[in-house]
Task: structure prediction
Amino acid sequence: MNAMRKRALLSCALVATGLFAAPAWAGSVQCDNDRAAGQYPCDNMGGLNYVYRSGQRGDWNGDDRLNSTNTGWYGWFFPGVERSYSFYAWLNNSAFTDAYARYGVIDTSNAYRQTAVINQNTAPGGWNYAGYGRGYLFTVTPSGNGRNGADIVQLYYADGLAAAADAAPRVTEANRDFSGRCPSATPADPRIAALQQRMLDAPDAYRDAVGSVDLRFRNNGQNEAIDFEVSRTQRSSFVRIARGQDRVEEHATRNGSSLSLYPQAKAYKTTLLADLPAPGGPRVYRNARCEAVFVHRGDASGAIGADNVIAPQNYAFWLSTEDVRIAGRQRLLGREATVVAGKHADYLGEKLGAATFRMWVDDKTGALLRLVGRDRTGAVAYSIDVRELRFDTGLELKPSMAAPQGWSRLETR
Result:
C-alpha cells in the first residue's frame, strides 16, 4: 500500500471517528502563465516551444502559452513547497485543441505522476479539474494531436494529512446560492439532467468494455481509428490508436503504470498514474464569479482515447452549457439510445467550427454511441462513430508492460 493511499485511509478513519470533521485543505493559490514571481507565490518552468500570446479573448489576464511544435512541456512551479494539491486548469481559448493533453505533478525526488488526460479540444470553457497529486511542480505536456495550451491554474493544497477524502474541493464559494445572478449549471429539463448524470457516472455501469470507434474533428485534424479493451475491476486497459497507415500508438495500463509504444519511431514512454480518488460534491457548478467549474473524474484504467465512448465526461458537460433537447430514441449497435439535439454556444461553436450537434447516448450505461456536429451549411464538422461496443464479457486483461528491446525511451513530463 503506497503512502498516499495510507494517508487517504487514515483521513477517512478520522472522519468516521469524529476526530477530524473535514478534509485538511489548508488553502488555495492561483498561478498564471508568465506572471512575475512577486505577483503569485509561484513561478513558471519549461515553456520550451510554447509561444507567449497576449490580447486573447477568454484567457485569464488576456494571455496564454500555446505550443508550437508538439514537443516540450509547460509548468507551474512552487519552489521548495511540496504539498498535496488538487489541480484545476482554466481552459477557455479556441486555439487549445490538444485531444490528449497530459497533466501531471513532479515531486522533490524528480518523480513524475500523471494526474489527468484532458481533451482540450472538446472541454467546455471554464475551470476543468485536472487531478490530484503530491509535489511542487505541475505540468502540461502536448500529445501531438492538436495545439496544446497553458493558462492559469488554481490549486488547493493540504498540510499534514492528504485530503483525498475530498480530492476535488469546490472552487471558490461553490455552496452559496447564486440563483438569479449566475446562469444555472443544472439543465432545466430533468430528463437532460438525468442523462447528464448517467454519462458522468458511466464507468460505474460496467466492469469491462471492448470496442472500436472512429473520431474525426476538422478543426484540429484529428482522424483516428481506436480499438480498446478496458477492465475497470483490474485497473487495466489496452488501446490502439491509428492515425492513417503510418502513425500508430499503443497504450497499455496496469495497476497504476502505463506503457506507450510508438512503433514508427521505435520509441516508448512509461508513466506512473497518480492516485485517483473519486471526486465528491457536484460535478458541474458556478463559482462566486459565475465561472463554470467542471470536475473530471479520474480513470484508474488509463484508457486514453476510449474515454470518448465509455467515460464521455466532456460531452456530458456540454449538456450544461449548450441549448439542448431530447430529440427521440433510436436503436444503435443493438442498444437502446436517447438522441439529444443541441446548438453550440459561442465558445465551442467557434472552436469546433460547428453550429449544432446530435449525440446518441446508451440508455443502460451512459456511454456515447455516436456524435455528429454540423456547421451552418450542414456540412459535418466533427463526428464520433462507434463501430463495436460490448460490456461485461468477463474480460481477463493483463497487458504486458515490457518495452521492446532496442527501442528508445522518451522523457515523461
Notes: The CA atoms of residues 236 and 247 lie 24 Å apart.
